[in-house]
Amino acid sequence: MSDLDQVTLKAGDKSVDLPVLKPTLGNSCIDISRLNKETGLFTYDSGFTATASCKSAVTYIDGDAGVLLYRGYPIEQLAKQSTFPEVAYLLMNGELPGRQELSKFDRNIVHHAMVPESMEKLFSGFRYNAHPMAILCASVASLSAFYHDSLDLNDPEQRNQAAVRLIAKVPTLAAAAYRYSMDLPILHPRTDLDYVSRFLHMMFGVPGESFELNPVVAKAMDLLLILHADHEQNASTSTVRLVGSTGANPYASVAAGITALWGPAHGGANEAVLTMLESIGGPKNVETAVAKAKDKNSHFRLMGFGHRVYKSFDPRATIIREMTHKVLGELGINDPLLEVALKLEEAALKDDYFVQRKLYPNVDFYSGIIYKALKIPTEMFTVMFAVARTAGWVAHWLEQQVDPEMKIGRPRQVYIGHADRDYVEMDKR
Ligand code: CMC
């Protein structure tokens, strides 16, 4: 953190004192909100590489030290000791729940896990081979058609209700998207199961048959959900906040976050990693893949590598790498893709190109191999990410709604088009 309380910016014969904001942890930020009024200048920062978009108390990342804290609690401790519903409560409410608070929260989620029956008509409108992310975006956005009437954004209870509904219904919609794409009957959420077991039953249960839950699978799924639950102002969360800043309802805001997550530079990377590992074909082709990733004439990148914020290691990737060996061992799976992944990591981490650019495996590098071991199909990987990240999205949306400094998000631009010119008649062009 910088000791400076303000910085002075000289712009020609004008100078302006800009206050420096001090965070609890991390880099100080220059508050430039007066800059334009006093100098006529804007700032330019494509991709927000050096720009904070809001004040937030939800999640903290130290990218150089590989630290990730949810509400101050290290991800390693939460991964070992917590559960996903508890983490979702923590993100939403700021504190760990007591026993009674957690059980009330769980009951509330079970109560809202069902989705309106008429949504089955929405699913049946999709072609059988629609990507489940496409179905998820549409179905989450369509929740606003069912619950919009009772949505007063100025009422804290209604805001909370919407947040709980999203945490409760997104897994139901995610599993339904998968079942529809497999031409399998959609299963209703079982109220006697916990959050993870309920989701696994909706994914893999067979109507009329008892459901055998493998505790190794349930534990691994819970851990993956915890690790993906939030990551401060990433692209999808910033999208939720941007849409939320317009006063749009939370279902629309979260649906926008899901679309942003889909891209391969963000959450879509987990699906892309598996496709990449399969296309590499075997450990003997790893060097060729690394060479291609370095070749600036090729569009190929090592998927699951690099991060805007982490410049030493991604603590989530470290936890997932350890877990991959354990889960595959416990399930008796020998996946040749793991060998390709390990060889690829080893080769990249020794290579100057990756070392100089501080490119390390990120959360998506190993997660696909575990999802595959848990029998989650590849097209569902990013959907799984969305199920987890819903907890973070609603936490940020709730925080934003009571932020006294919240304004509609409306960036400026550096215009590089034509200066004004006269319209030319068609026959004179
Ligand atoms: N493979 C090869 N080169 C890379 C990679 C990669 N995966 N990532 C970055 N680079 C190079 C990039 O070409 C650039 O090189 P140069 O300085 O010579 O132009 C340099 O490293 C900096 O990259 P950048 O694109 O400016 O960095 P960024 O912070 O804008 O992008 C990133 C971060 C995650 C989008 C990028 O590293 C990437 O595309 N990674 C692969 C996709 C991926 O795994 N995404 C998941 C991110 S973590 C989970 C999540 O957010 O959902």
Features of the shown structure:
429 residues, mainly alpha, 3-stranded antiparallel β-sheet, 18 helices, binds carboxymethyl coenzyme *A
Question: What's the arrangement of secondary structure elements?
Answer:
Blueprint: E1 6-11, E2 14-21, E3 29-30, H1 35-39, E4 59-62, E5 67-70, E6 73-74, H2 75-81, H3 84-93, H4 99-111, H5 119-124, H6 132-147, H7 156-181, H8 195-204, H9 215-227, H10 235-244, H11 250-261, H12 269-280, H13 286-294, H14 315-330, H15 336-350, H16 352-356, H17 363-373, H18 381-401
Antiparallel strand pairs: 1-2, 2-3, 4-5, 5-6
Helix pairs in contact: 3-18, 4-7, 6-7, 6-11, 7-8, 7-18, 9-14, 9-17, 9-18, 10-11, 10-18, 11-18, 12-17, 13-15, 14-17
The protein binds carboxymethyl coenzyme *A (CMC).
Residues 47, 234, 265-267, 269, 293, 301-308, 357, 359, 362-364 line the site of carboxymethyl coenzyme *A.
Description:
It is a single chain. The protein is mainly alpha-helical and 429 residues long. The chain has helices at residues 35-39, 75-81, 84-93, 99-111, 119-124, 132-147, 156-181, 195-204, 215-227, 235-244, 250-261, 269-280, 286-294, 315-330, 336-350, 352-356, 363-373, 381-401, and strands spanning 6-11, 14-21, 29-30, 59-62, 67-70, 73-74. It has a three-stranded antiparallel β-sheet. β2 (14-21) and β3 form a beta hairpin. α3 runs parallel beside α18. It is globular, with a radius of gyration of 23 Å. It binds carboxymethyl coenzyme *A (CMC). Residues 47, 234, 265-267, 269, 293, 301-308, 357, 359, 362-364 line the site of carboxymethyl coenzyme *A.
